[in-house]
Specification:
CATH superfamily of chain B: Hypothetical protein apc22750. Chain B
Radius of gyration of chain A: 24 Å
Strand order of the largest sheet of chain A: 3-4-8-10-9
Largest interface: A-B, 58 and 64 residues
Helix content of chain A: 25-40%
CATH topology of chain A: Translation Initiation Factor IF3
CATH class of chain B: Alpha Beta
Strand content of chain B: 25-35%
CATH superfamily of chain A: Hypothetical protein apc22750. Chain B
Structural class of chain A: alpha+beta
CATH architecture of chain A: 2-Layer Sandwich
CATH architecture of chain B: 2-Layer Sandwich
Shape of chain A: elongated
Oligomer: heterodimer
Radius of gyration of chain B: 22 Å
Strand content of chain A: 25-35%
Low-confidence stretches of chain A: 54-71
Number of strands of chain B: 9
Order of helices and strands of chain B: HHEEHEEEHEHHEEE
Number of domains of chain A: 1
Largest sheet of chain A: 5 strands, antiparallel
Amino acid sequence: MSAAGDVPEAASRRLESGSFSSGLSATDFSACLQMGLRPVGLVQGFCAMQWGWYAAGSSLGRGLSPFGPSGGGGYQQNWYCPHGFVGGEHRTWGQNFEQTWVEDAWRTGFSAAFDRMLEEAESVGAHGVIGVTDTSRHLADTRVIEFHLLGTAVVVDGAPSPPAGTPWSTYLAGPRLAKLVEAGFMPVSVVATMASVRVWAYCITEFLMEGGAYGWAASMGSTAEIEQVSEARLAARVLAREQARRQLGSDTLQGIAFSAVEREIGAGDQVVECTLRGTRVRRFKDFDPLPPPRPTVRLS
Amino acid sequence: MTGPSDLPSGAEHRLEELRGGFFTSDLSVNEFLLVKEAGFHPLGFVMGSSIYHTGFQGRRWSKSQELTKLTEAMYNARELAMTRMEEEADELGADGVVGVRLDVNYYEWGSDAAEFIALGTAVKAEDGKSYRNRLGKPFTSDLSGQDFWTIMQTGHIPQGLVMGTCVYHIAHRGLGQALSSVGQNVELPNFTQALYEARELAMTRMQDEGTRLGATGIVGVRLEEKSHQWGSHTIEFLSIGTAVTKTGEVSLPKPTVIISLDN
């Protein structure tokens, strides 16, 4: 599979058979039928990527990385030691920087898997893919990350085929999707972005994270903000949001979920990764006011 | 127990009691209510079990491949447990089994041996019609009571819990291969292809089972991955879902908009 362009033979065989399969729960399935969507098959896409460099992120490489002050090309912020002395172990400067090459790799893996899923959907003549889930995880104990996208392809009976043949896609399914359509929006595409920010601690961050060897009586035991880390987390979220915004055009993003992971890679050093997921939606009709809700009280 | 056709004498005795009209079930109150609402009543809690020696299959260090012996073992073991459960249900004159759970247990006393167990609640239709599947057996499904009711309202009837499995060995990468792409984040097409294929095999096998039951489709498909006790490079991909047949139109009323006054 040199490019996204060929679905494995087993997949074509599965998708050609007459019956459908769907990852939808019974509730989602019934909501889907009520909306006039007919499930035609479970569709999926994969991409296994070599992800070697993470293990190399030791503090030994600090200051030796080729991605120094101007390497990454993205967000970058420096911190300098306020103490004015130079000791062998004393970290006189620190840096937060965006790891654009990691983001690029993530995007490559995600879009390859996403395109393959859409391709499967297209091959069964689907109009859209609902209830999409995506995962990326390390495979066994290898340095390989596998991206997996899974969704249920649906057909709107009697509707013309989608423009340019590409089905729409959404993370939503069932009642949540029904409510979106009820509100006058149609899903356009799944949007997912990932921002990766590396923190190289300077002396103060290192001390606050690890407890340093320099006996800072003043801050000992007190509560203080670790500014460098706060900034890195904020930056990761902002970057992920900016990336998503660039994909939107004039549409809006619905049902946004952020998830952030912090990976410790040395004394005070860490990588902050923030993933944003949502569904790009477009208004297709005016909002129909719903009937007034009936108040309920649960007796259990 | 040479074949799945003989149930232990304890089971016979228990089922005999259940035939008297007394029933056991693991349904919650809400589930019980909705199963009744769907026109079925519970007959009894049924189960099937199979202790299987899964054995060992040699694998080549650097080759990604399906381990067919293990695939067959995992499949047969589950199939045996399911069949025994179906037989218990059959003894009770059930139309189907709802809320089926399929578990695998490992015990300290048997290395390479695993117990596969299937549990569920046998139900019978109150309208006197037969809801058995086209093989003349009680249908099985992993749907909860609520889901069972919902599916029935969409004009679909469960046919059976269908599954497909594929045990796959993921190649270890040689030093040379790893070095040649060190420091790069690139796609590894062999890995992509191998795992894609493995999951597709599991899903195709599941779908073939559905087709044999004359199902229109499969709902609630789950794709599970387990390494069991084989080490991290050998993975079982299990695909499982409930096959359904369309028999009528959607009769689910349009949901009422509510606002909950609970916290």
